[in-house]
Structure formats: C-alpha cells, structure tokens
Design a protein that fits this description.
This protein is mostly beta strands and 256 residues long. It has 2 domains: 67 residues; 183 residues, Galactose-binding domain-like (Jelly Rolls, Sandwich). Helix content is 8%, strand content 37%. The radius of gyration is 21 Å and the shape is globular. The two termini are 23 Å apart. 37% of the residues are buried.
C-alpha cells in the first residue's frame, strides 16, 4: 500500500526448487528484490510447498520503503493531495483528556479519551475545489484504551465521524483498539503494535458544493470526532504515515 491508500498487488512473484533436509535448519534460498520507487509498505509472502501444492512452512517479511515523511502538499496530474500529520492538529477537544503535542509527534499518532475531536487545517493555496470532480478523505483510526492487550475478544468500540468544512462524510462504529503484528509501523516506531481501520470517505457533486461554500477562509478543515451523543465513546486514535498498519496519515485527495 502506498501513501494514498492504493493497493499494489503482486509487484513480483516467483518460485524455485529448494532442498528440505529432514530435521535440519539450512539455508533454503537467497532472494534479491528491487524495491518500489514510490514510498509504500510492502509484504513479502513466503511459502514452502510440496510438488502436490501442500504448504509445509510459510512466513512473511515486511519492508517499509520511504525516504521522508509524505509531504503536506503534493501536486499531481489533475489531482492535489493534502496531508495533516497527527501531531499537527489545529484544534483538539476531549472529555477525558489527551496526550501532549511532543508525545504525539514523537509517536506519529494522536489520541483522546471519551468523546471529542481533532481538526486539521489544510491550506488550499488557491486550489479551486468548486471545480473538483471528487474529493476523497483517508484516515487510519481506532478507539483508544489506556492498556495495550494483544488483540482478542476483549473489544473496545468507539464511534468515528469525519467531516470536511463541517460537512459530514463518514460515520461508523470502530470495533476495537487492536494491538498485534499487523501494527508493523507502530512496532517500527517503538510502540506495541497498535493500529486502526482505514476509513474512506468520498464527496461528489452536491457535497463538494457544500464544502466549497464553507471554505471562505481558504482552508479545508478536516475533523475526526467522537460525537458527544454517540453510544460508543471509546476515545479515538489517529495514526500517521509512520505509525499503525497503513502508511497513510489524515489525507485529502482532490481530483479534477
């Protein structure tokens, strides 16, 4: 997956005959890989199978391909990508408190307890969103609990509402605040494997008109919130491009 949430399947594949000595640990094969030019989180899946196709051993290795943190503004052919790193929020209000800004930037995630909101202000710098064909919002989010158990049936749900310039685009219950090997970027950052769910929201036509009418200050205000009237108020964790499961921070993609 790249920094815009796009999946790139089967970048390379292959097979080779290997020795499988009985009751020995031995080098099976050496694999040389050319990593992608674009930043992304890649998984190398490995399996040892018999000639009949029966799997007798398997594993995976993950590679985080990145030179620098994704830019706050990225102009592409007929699209504009705006990003808000978690620790760069412009507004934060939480009923149960939150972390301090230095900690959020060090961990590349922000979190709050109970109900509340995080809001990022993304400068348009003259971009005419009224002419946009589509606006897409991406965000990796989960609940936030004070402990960090490995993922099991002890779930801890919360509610996520995403709005752009006060226009609601997404509303769902997030099942948990999971911690396991899928949170590879959290481990890489020094954490304990926390990660979230990748939320997608799309605005077209009338919604774009409404977002445009509310952008008189030249900003896109991206808000991730747990509403005060939500039944599930398990706090909120927002992950950055170098934390969690996906190499994606709060992102707005404007297509013309």
């Amino acid at each position: 997956m790249d920094t815009q949430g796009r999946l790139h399947q089967d970048l390379t594949s292959g097979r080779v005959a290997i020795a499988f000595p009985h009751r020995q640990v031995a080098l099976a094969h050496t694999i040389e890989l050319r990593l992608p030019e674009a930043p992304m989180l890649c998984s190398l899946l490995l399996a040892a199978r018999t000639p009949a196709g029966i799997t007798i051993a398997q594993n995976f290795v993950q590679y985080f391909v990145s030179r620098d943190y994704p830019p706050a503004r990225e102009e592409m052919n007929r699209s504009l990508v705006l990003r808000g790193p978690p620790g760069n929020w412009a507004r934060s209000e939480w009923s149960g408190g939150t972390a301090d800004r230095d900690k959020e930037r060090a961990e590349d995630c922000c979190y709050g307890f109970g109900h509340g909101l995080f809001e990022w202000h993304l400068p348009l710098a003259g971009a005419e969103i009224a002419k946009a064909r589509r606006i897409k919002v991406l965000c990796e989010a989960s609940a936030h609990r004070s402990d960090a158990p490995q993922t099991d049936e002890d779930i801890f749900p919360t509610t996520l509402q995403i709005a752009l310039n006060d226009v609601p685009l997404f509303h769902a219950v997030l099942r948990n605040h999971p911690h396991d090997s899928r949170g590879v970027l959290s481990y890489w950052r020094g954490g304990v494997g926390a990660y979230g769910y990748l939320a997608h929201a799309i605005a077209e036509k009338n919604l774009i008109d409404e977002i445009t009418r509310n952008s008189s200050d030249g900003l896109l205000r991206l808000r991730c919130a747990v509403p005060p009237d939500a039944q599930a108020q398990g706090g909120l964790t927002i992950y950055g491009a170098e934390c969690g499961r996906f190499p994606v921070c709060p992102t707005v993609i404007i297509d013309w």
